[in-house]
């Protein structure tokens, strides 16, 4: 299976060249806990489901800050959170179904804004 990439189609910019998918309860519960870092150019995609949208996250037991992008089902950006420190929680984002966790600083580098259209593919 080829690796997935995250692209900001609105700005024609690659956001992450390697995307891991967390689409099970266990994968979503573990997330980035226990990791020492999230390298630039990588992302963790929390795919929401009908009864389990990824409209809020927590960084308990994490060792580093992250940038977070919340999207609707069509991957249109609903909210962004920059430099979310360990042991924090986000407020639920209305209309968000999925979210992407990125290395801190990724949002500034890729200039993602609310309303941008993202795409995940090979």
What does the model show?
Helix content is 9%, strand content 36%. The protein is globular. It starts with a strand and ends with a strand. The chain is mainly beta and 122 residues long. The chain is built from 2 helices and 7 strands.
Largest sheet: 7 strands, mixed
Q: Tell me, what's the shape?
A: globular
Instruction: Compute the average pLDDT.
Output: 93
Strand arrangement within the widest β-sheet reads 5-4-6-3-2-1-7
List low-pLDDT spans.
Answer: none
- For the record, give the distance between the C-alpha atoms at the N and C termini, rounded to a whole number: 9 Å
Annotation, overall tally of beta strands: 7
Taken in chain order, the helices and strands follow as: EEHEEEEHE
Contiguous helical run count:
2
Radius of gyration: 13 Å
Question: Given the helix and strand composition, which structural class is it?
Answer: mainly beta
Helix content: under 10%
**Proportion of strand residues:** 35-45%
Question: Which descriptors apply to this entry?
Answer:
about 120 residues, 7 strands, about 35% strand, about 10% helix, seven-stranded mixed β-sheet, mainly beta
How are the elements arranged and paired?
Blueprint lengths: L3 E5 L4 E10 L2 H6 L11 E5 L19 E6 L5 E8 L13 E6 L2 H5 L7 E4 L1
Parallel strand pairs: 2-3
Antiparallel strand pairs: 1-2, 1-7, 3-6, 4-5, 4-6
């Amino acid at each position: 299976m080829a690796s997935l990439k995250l692209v900001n189609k609105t700005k024609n910019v690659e956001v992450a060249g390697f995307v891991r998918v967390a689409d099970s309860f266990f994968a979503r519960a573990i997330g980035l806990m226990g990791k020492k870092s999230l390298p630039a150019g990588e992302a963790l995609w929390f795919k929401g489901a009908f009864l389990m949208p990824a409209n809020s996250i927590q960084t308990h037991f994490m060792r580093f800050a992250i940038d977070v992008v919340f999207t609707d089902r069509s991957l249109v950006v609903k909210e962004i959170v920059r430099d979310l420190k360990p042991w924090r929680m986000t407020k639920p984002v209305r209309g968000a179904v999925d979210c992407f966790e990125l290395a801190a600083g990724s949002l500034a580098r890729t200039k993602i804004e609310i309303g941008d259209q993202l795409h995940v593919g090979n």
